[in-house]
């Protein structure tokens, strides 16, 4: 059983992706994007007060942290959040033939098979035995339709599903996110954000959710369940996504005593057999109980069950060649790599539009790596 302070320590690096003493190197693309945040009121979106300034601040601090980490390590610039990959694998995403009529939108063309890249990651920790959020980022390729991001260049045809292994986030607004960041910046940990003598400044629910977000048991990234956490438009209806192992999720949490046990589990799994996930969509049925602006609210699965719309297959493979790992580290995943039919919703997603753009641009610039969306499973220079 993990204690609270340990969970908090995990969060201080996971979420604060960006606390730094020096000035942030501002990214021009991201500055432009900040001016483009808009809300779709008909789908339940409401802008927070001073939202663009708050988002800009999160992006600046995340960029400063990335630059500081790069200077300190003196090597390759890594992602500001989810820097450790357990593996980045080739996959296919096949849409079911019998997908419900109202879900035949955008990427979800009945029977269509897409190639995909998938990166599995830790939120912040280098040692897999430490509590953490775990990520599954799916990049589906060959998707047609009008794009959401102006910056991704002509010809981009990807749709990213960025998922985590718990269904809710722990903060419900960006103003609190900044206060949480400031606490870590000034105090070195977020404890006094969660706990305070002033009842008006207590964030006990956030503390409880933060612990849930970072303590889900995991034995193998390929046998865990993942959720989008935040909501997305599917045409004109808000939805959430989930990927569930086809044979059911393993929630035992049993694992060997090794710092890289998650990558080792993936290697052993894919040496012997394919991995498979059912990809599902949950409809928003009652907007009041299923808000798009609050990612701390679980959308009740009894009231609106997740409906299978496709299958993710990860064929048996080896995936640890140097060229493939470099290729994958130079990929950029963002909820905003998508077509307009799948627009991300809510303030957390609006912040991610600017923050991921800023940190990805900076990371690629520091590494001297081109920032391009892939169009096939071919790794330049071989695997
Ligand atoms: C305001 C809230 C958030 C901020 C500021 C934030 C920040 C970031 C940043 C800076 C990155 C690295 C981007 C890059 O350099 O390419 C990242 C990656 C990631 N984030 Fe978030 N994030 C937020 C919320 C979330 C939520 C709610 C989820 C839940 C699904 C999530 C899941 C992930 C995952 C899985 C990755 C790794 C993607 C990859 O493999 O490249 N994030 N996040």
List descriptors.
nine-stranded antiparallel sheet, alpha+beta, 9 helices, single chain, about 375 residues, binds protoporphyrin IX containing FE, disordered N terminus, globular, Catalase HpII,  Chain A, domain 1
Model description:
With 383 residues, the protein is α+β, with helices and mostly antiparallel strands. It has one domain (4-367): Catalase HpII,  Chain A, domain 1 (Beta Barrel). Helices cover 29% and strands 18% of the residues. It contains 9 helices and 9 strands. Strands 1, 2, 3, 4, 5, 6, 7, 8 and 9 form a 9-stranded antiparallel sheet that branches. Helix 1 crosses helix 6 and helix 3 runs parallel beside helix 4. The longest helix has 23 residues, at 51-73. The chain is globular, with a radius of gyration of 20 Å. Residues 1-10 and 12-32 have low confidence and may be disordered.
Number of domains: 1
CATH top level?
A: Mainly Beta
CATH H-level superfamily title: Catalase core domain
Shape: globular
**Major sheet summary line:** 9 strands, antiparallel
- Secondary structure category: alpha+beta
N/C terminus separation: 40 Å
- Proper CATH architecture: Beta Barrel
Please tally the β strands and state the result.
9
Regions with little confidence, pLDDT below 50 for 5+ residues: 1-10, 12-32
Query: Cofactors and ligands present?
Result: protoporphyrin IX containing FE
Helix content: 25-40%
Radius of gyration: 20 Å
CATH topology (fold) name = Catalase HpII,  Chain A, domain 1
Question: Oligomeric status of the shown chains?
Answer: single chain
Strand content: 15-25%
Taking all residues together, what is the mean pLDDT?
90
What letter string, H or E per element, gives the SSE order? HHHEEEEHHHEEEHEEHH
Helical region count? 9
């Amino acid at each position: 059983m993990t204690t609270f302070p340990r969970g908090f320590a995990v969060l201080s690096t996971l979420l604060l992706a960006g606390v730094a003493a020096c000035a942030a190197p501002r990214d021009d693309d991201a500055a432009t994007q900040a001016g483009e945040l808009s809300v779709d009121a008909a789908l339940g979106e409401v802008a927070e007060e001073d939202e663009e300034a708050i988002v800009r601040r999160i992006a600046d601090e995340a960029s400063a942290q990335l630059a500081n980490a790069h200077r300190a390590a003196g090597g390759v610039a890594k992602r500001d959040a989810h820097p450790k990959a357990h593996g980045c694998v080739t996959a296919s995403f096949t849409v079911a033939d019998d997908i419900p009529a109202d879900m035949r939108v955008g990427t979800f063309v009945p029977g269509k098979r897409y190639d995909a890249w998938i990166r599995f990651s830790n939120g912040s920790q280098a040692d897999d035995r430490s509590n953490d959020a775990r990520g599954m980022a799916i990049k589906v390729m060959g998707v047609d339709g009008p794009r959401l991001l102006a910056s991704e260049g002509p010809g981009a045809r990807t749709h990213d599903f960025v998922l985590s292994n718990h269904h809710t986030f722990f903060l419900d607004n960006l103003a609190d996110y900044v206060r949480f960041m400031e606490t870590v910046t000034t105090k070195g940990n977020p404890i006094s954000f969660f706990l305070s003598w002033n009842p008006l400044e207590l964030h006990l629910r956030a503390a409880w959710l933060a612990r849930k977000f970072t303590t889900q048991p995991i034995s193998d990234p390929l046998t865990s369940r993942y959720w989008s956490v935040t909501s997305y438009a599917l045409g004109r209806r808000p939805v959430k996504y989930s990927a569930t192992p086809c044979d059911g999720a393993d929630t035992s949490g049993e694992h060997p005593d090794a710092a890289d046990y998650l990558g080792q589990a993936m290697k052993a799994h894919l040496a012997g057999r394919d991995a498979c996930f059912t990809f599902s969509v949950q409809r928003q049925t009652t907007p009041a109980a299923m808000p798009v602006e609050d990612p701390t609210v679980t959308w009740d699965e009894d009231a609106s069950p997740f409906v299978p719309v496709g299958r993710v297959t990860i064929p048996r493979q080896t995936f640890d060649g140097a060229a493939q790992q470099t290729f994958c580290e130079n990929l950029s995943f963002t909820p905003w790599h998508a077509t307009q039919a799948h627009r991300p919703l809510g303030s957390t997603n609006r912040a991610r539009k600017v923050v991921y753009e800023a940190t990805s641009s900076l990371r690629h610039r520091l590494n001297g790596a081109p920032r391009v969306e892939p169009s096939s499973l071919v790794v330049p220079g071989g695997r």
